[in-house]
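Thread title: Can someone regenerate the structure for this chain?

I was given the following input by a collaborator and told the matching structure tokens would be attached. They weren't. Posting the sequence so someone can regenerate them.
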Amino acid sequence: MACKTPSVVAASLAAVVTIAPAVAADQNTAATVQTIRAATVQFEKIENALAAGYIPDPSGRCISAAAEGLPPQLGAMGIHYMRPDMLGITTTAPRVDGNNTHTDFMNPSILLYEPQADGSMRLVGVENLVFEKGWRAAGNTEAPRLLTRSWDRMADDSSTAQDEAHGFEPHFDQHVWLVGLPEHALLPFNPAVTCDHHRPVSQGQ
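Best answer:
Regenerated them for you:
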């Protein structure tokens, strides 16, 4: 997997992946989600996302907890659409690496879409990702934070068969969900999101 253009990160519970605890749903969380929803409302139309430079995950995957070997009740992430320029991608092989320090959720580097039964896509969340090496080179000594929550750290453990960082160099990422229950708003997966209606595109199409 490390030699292929990988999926945008999905959370793992492996030891080398540090999953930050949930933040109790409160007025600050709700207000932040509402502000981000208003700032990204134009991307409810996926054609606007494409026009703005977002591209779909080259793997074509819809990320779900079950597909990652995690409890199905955690839900899913959906399909990732990303801005390579915001991610500061410098190389894609042998692992994806970059040098960005972009943490603005009003202008996120990644959009999350849920496939619908009619073939349309519903905007369900946003995400930002920074590569650890670049983040620390910029003088940061701790993981980025959103409200009181540290972003999740992801790094591959070469001693395991699973690629815990999904082809990426060590990095931090944070999701913000625009749908579902408030207590799930900042977690990696969302129980209100599914991949049930995902129809993968065949290679060559």
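Residues 27-39 form the longest helix (13 residues).
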